[in-house]
Structures are given as C-alpha cells and as structure tokens.
UniProtKB/TrEMBL annotation:
Lineage: Bacteria, Bacillati, Actinomycetota, Actinomycetes, Micrococcales
Residue stretches making up the HIRAN domain: 23-126
Location of the region described as Disordered in the Swiss-Prot/TrEMBL record: 290-318
Database matches in InterPro entries: HIRAN
Domain of life: Bacteria
Record's protein name: HIRAN domain-containing protein
SMART domains assigned: HIRAN (SM00910)
Residue ranges that the Swiss-Prot or TrEMBL entry lists as coiled coil: none
TM helices/strands, residue ranges: 343-376
Length: 401
C-alpha cells in the first residue's frame, strides 16, 4: 500500500499508545531483540496506523504497527476522533504513516521473587485531527509536494480573501496544499526582481518576500525541469473578516538527494464522505503474560488512563480512593505500596521536626512551621495515592484489546 505520511514534525513523539503492556512478544519483535537485564533500549521506527473495522472488541479500533507487529492501539476516545480521517486514508488505498519511539527495559521485580520483568513505553507522532488532510480537494497529481519544514508567512493574502474564505474550516484552522511559481517583477530602474507566487487550486493567494523566495526558487526550477509544479503544505487560519497563510516546507538546502530524484507527488484521496469502505485488518494475537506496568488498553475500566486526542497530556492513572490524580512513574513502580506508605509517614515526621526547629525563629517561626506541615501533609497524601494506584494496578486482571 502507498504510504500517507502524516504532515508535521514527526520527530516529536507526542502521543502515548495503549496496550503495550500486554504485547511483550510483539514489542520485542518490533525492536528486534529483548533487552538484557537493566539494559534500556530506545529506538525510533516508522509506524503504521491501521484501522480495524473488523476488530471484534471495537469497530473504531486503530492499531499501531511497527515492523509488521501490533505494538499498541490508540485509546478508545482518540480512535473515535481520528476514525473518519484514518478510514478515508485507508479507503484511498493508503496507510497512515508516522514514527514511533519505543523504550524498553528488563528489571528484577521485588514482588515476584526477583524475577526479571519487561517494561516498555510506545509513543508516536500524531498531529491534531484537522492537521492531517488538506482542505482543498483538487487533484495535486502534478505537484511535487515538499517535505514538512519551518514556518514562513505568506504576504498579500489579504488581497485574496474572497478566494481564501471558501477554504476556511469550521474550527478556523486547517491545512491546504499550495503551488509555488516564479514571479518576475520589473523595477522602475529596469532591474528584475525574482519572487515566489503561491496559488491555491490555481488562483493566486499571495507571495513570499525576497528573502524567503530565495529559499524556494531553486526548487521551483528543479521541479519545472522535471515537468512538475512545486507544492507545499500551508496552514490556513482566519475568520469571516480575514485569513492568513503560513507555509511549512523544506528549503532548498534541506532537501535530500532522494527527494530531489523522486519528487513525490501528493497521493490521491477519495472524496470526503459520510462513511468509507475499509478493508479488514484485525490480527488475532496469542495472549501475552502481563509483565509490564499498567498501561491499560482501550477496553479497560473507566479508571484506566487515556490520552488527550491532541497528544498533549501524559497517560495518568487516577487513584480512585482519593480526589485528584497522581502520575505514577517507572521510578515509583520500583518500590512496593508498603514502602510508599511508610515514606508518607516519614515525611510527616520530618515535617514536624523541621517545623519545630524553624518555629523557634522570631516573628516568622509560626509561618514556617505551618508551611512545613502543609508540605508534609501534601507529601504524605501523594505517597498514599501512589500506594493506592500500585495496589490497584496489581489487582487488575490481564485484559487484551
């Protein structure tokens, strides 16, 4: 299948997948080997986002696959949000492609007679839903679209608002693909000034300054020599009063030889529709021993962690017996719940001792004493929450998506 690379900076792995705790065999296979004891492996791989309409547990399910192995899933809320986009890509005969960072380690477990246990974390790059597909549906079959690059402002778009208004999305921001063309302006002294004009579906919508034009003029000429136009991603943003365009494309000095030789065109998407025919893709996998920290799958109970669809929030595990939430780290999981509860008591004792010593200071002593007690109580509460979460994790039975 043709790859549809998600636009954006794919080196920023902003989204935690779920279910990797139940896929030790698959994660290990994707990595190519199992870590040795206390060895940490961290590598970045190309990853595919595969919709699974035939998944018996959830027809919205989206698996994350690395080297042919399912290493996790989008959480249930995110899968529902991204479903129309990823289904359209799949129905167009393509596979949504991004990058994944896999971290894995094997450590001895205090609670299991020092048996070595496997821990892993999988994060992917996943842009906002409205920053994946272009808003303009006109075929870009002859446009060699530049790889994603740094942001540069288009100038003069205010003169073409009537055309840009037709593309403004409901949420006021989205992506379009522009084409870039050489523009020659003759100055009063007869000298020529070479600029870049940008067009949206064939109509001029602005231009670049002299300084920014120089970054793209060589590539425009190179594309023309190959019989193609030069395309570039652009963010469009605005309201009923104004609109602006910001291009996001690699400059001439940033292009690889591979891109210059192939000049790939934008893949053809089927028209937007209410629903799409997506091929079955679910893989029935053998059960895997739950050897890892509790990164719960999309089918977990309501107290399981979920990731914000924007990918901006970490995976949190909420302690039910207490109000609020606490983030449990790998370091926290190295110690038993009893150890954390004991640490909470120790924090209170230390706070009382230090507070009593500081309380003897004239004038500000009482304030310092109260401050120490507040810090001690907060530390104690956090330790109790972590202990409760760890107890809850260890009571959860093996679940698979």
């Amino acid at each position: 299948m043709e790859k549809y690379y998600l636009p954006g900076k794919d080196s920023w792995h902003n989204f935690d997948v779920v279910g990797e705790a139940y896929r030790e065999a698959q994660v290990t296979a994707a990595l190519g080997r199992r870590p040795r004891l206390d060895e940490e492996i961290e590598e970045v791989f190309e990853a595919f986002l595969i919709p699974e309409p035939d998944n018996p547990h959830d027809a919205n399910a989206v698996s994350v696959r690395v080297n042919g192995h399912v290493v996790g899933y989008l959480d249930r809320d995110a899968a529902q949000v991204y479903r129309p986009i990823l289904h359209r890509i799949a129905a167009s005969g393509m596979v949504a492609t991004t990058t994944a960072r896999i971290w894995a380690v094997v450590r001895e477990s205090w609670e299991d007679n020092q048996r070595a246990r496997f821990f892993a974390n999988v994060r992917i790059y996943l842009p906002e839903p409205h920053q994946i597909l272009p808003l303009n549906n006109q075929s870009q079959a002859n446009a060699a679209v530049l790889p994603w690059g740094g942001a540069l402002q288009v100038t003069g778009e205010d003169k073409h608002f009537n055309h840009l208004f037709n593309y403004l999305p409901e949420n006021s921001e989205g992506l379009v693909i522009l084409t870039m063309h050489k523009l020659v302006q003759t100055l009063k002294n007869g000298a020529e000034k070479h600029l870049v004009e940008v067009r949206l579906d064939g109509e001029r919508v602005g231009q670049l300054t002299s300084a920014t034009s120089n970054h793209y003029l060589p590539t425009i000429a190179h594309a023309a020599d190959g019989g193609k136009e030069l395309g570039i991603w652009a963010k469009i943003k605005g309201s009923g009063l104004a609109a602006e365009l910001v291009i996001q494309g690699a400059r001439a000095t940033e292009l690889s030889d591979d891109w210059l030789n192939t000049m790939p065109t934008f893949p053809r998407l089927i028209p937007e529709a209410a629903g799409y025919e997506v091929p079955p893709a679910f893989i029935e996998e053998p059960p895997t021993r739950r050897d890892q920290r509790a990164t719960l799958p999309a089918t977990a109970p309501p107290s399981a962690p979920t990731t914000n669809p924007s990918g901006s929030s970490p995976v949190n595990i909420t302690s039910k017996p207490f109000k609020g939430h606490v983030v449990v780290t790998e370091k926290d999981r190295r110690y038993s719940p009893i150890t954390h509860r004991s640490a909470g008591v120790a924090i209170i004792i230390i706070a009382v001792i230090v507070g009593a010593m500081l309380g003897a200071i004239p004038l500000i002593g009482p304030v310092l004493f109260i401050g120490c007690m507040v810090l001690g109580i907060m530390g104690n509460i956090r330790s109790r929450k972590i202990a409760a979460v760890l107890e809850k994790e260890r009571s959860i039975p093996d679940l698979r998506l």
